[in-house]
C-alpha cells in the first residue's frame, strides 16, 4: 500500500463567510492548513504517493505543498475544469496511479478530521478480499451523511446517501469518508461526466454483487463542514484529542504561534489557537477558539468556542460565544454575540450595538 487520492474539490469547499477566498482545506487548523493534518496522517500510515483531486480554487494547493517533499510525500495535483463529483474526481486521476489492477488505493474526503487507524482499514480490505472497504462511524443524527448498514460479518448491504424519509434511517452507521478501492474498480467508473461515488458507484456496485466491506471504528471523527465544527476540530487537535503529527508544537491547552503577542495576564484555554501575528490584550479570556493570522482581541474581551478571521478585531470587553467573525471584520467594544452569529468579512459593528442580557 503506497498511494492515495485526496478529494478537495466540489462546491462545498468554501468556508463562508469566514474566508471568502480560501478553500476550506487551506484554512489553518491548529496553526497549519487543515489538509496538512490529513497528509501527515497518511504519510505516518505508510502512504508515499498522493494525488489531490481539486476543482474550486485549485491554484492555492500546489504553491503551498509543492511536490510534497517537505512532508516526505510525493504529491500530484489534478484540476477538474468543472466539478466532476466524488466518483468523477476519483476516475479523473486514475492515470496518475501507479498501482496494478488488484492493488489497493486509499481515498479520503478532504474535510474529515479523524483518528482512523488507516493501516487497520487496509488490513481489513486485504483480509476480507473486498472490492471496496469503507471506514464507518456511528452518529446520533445520520441524516446529513451516507447511511451504510452491514450484516454481521461487516459486509455492506446498502448505501443510502442523505436519507430523506424516516423509513430510510435504518442504521446509525455512516460513511466516514475514507475508503480502500481495488484499483480496477476505480478504472470501471465512467469518464467524462460527473459521477457521485455515494449516489451512483456504491449502489451500482452493490446491485452487481460486488463485495463492499465496512469497518466500524469509533475513534475520533468530525466532518468539518461548518465553521463551528472547524473550530471544534482545531481545538481538539491542540488538545491532543484528534491525533495529528502535523500540530506544530506540543499538545496542550493552547497553541500560540511564534509571531503572536499575548498579554501576560490574558487566559488561553480549551485548545485555543493564536495565529501568526495575532494579538491578545490584557485580561482577555479566550477558550476553545481559533484566532486566525493577525486577529486582534482587545483587553477584557471574552471569546469562547468562536472563530475570529484573519485580521479581524474584537473590541474591549466584548463577549463572544459560538460566533464566527469573518476576515477583516471589526466588532466594536462592549458587544455580546451568541451562538450561530456570523459577522461578514470586513463588516463593522459599532461599540455597544448587540447584547442578549436583560435590562437592568
Ligand atoms: N475533486 C472533487 N470534485 N472533489 C469533490 C467534488 C468534486 O466535484 N465534490 C465533492 N468533493 C470532495 C469534497 O471536497 C469533500 O472533501 C468530499 O469530496 C466530500 O464532499 P462533501 O461535499 O463534503 O460531501 P458531504 O460531507 O455532504 O458527504 C460526504 O461525506 C460524508 C462524511 O462527512 C459523503 O461521502 C457522505 O456519504 C459521508 O457520510
Ligand atoms: Mg463533507
UniProtKB/TrEMBL annotation:
InterPro entries: GMPPB_C, Mannose-1P_guanyltransferase, NTP_transferase_dom, Nucleotide-diphossugar_trans. This is GDP-mannose pyrophosphorylase. SUPFAM superfamilies: Nucleotide-diphospho-sugar transferases. Residues 4-236 form the Nucleotidyl transferase domain. Belongs to the transferase hexapeptide repeat family. It holds the Pfam family GMPPB_C. Residues 252-333 form the Mannose-1-phosphate guanyltransferase C-terminal domain.
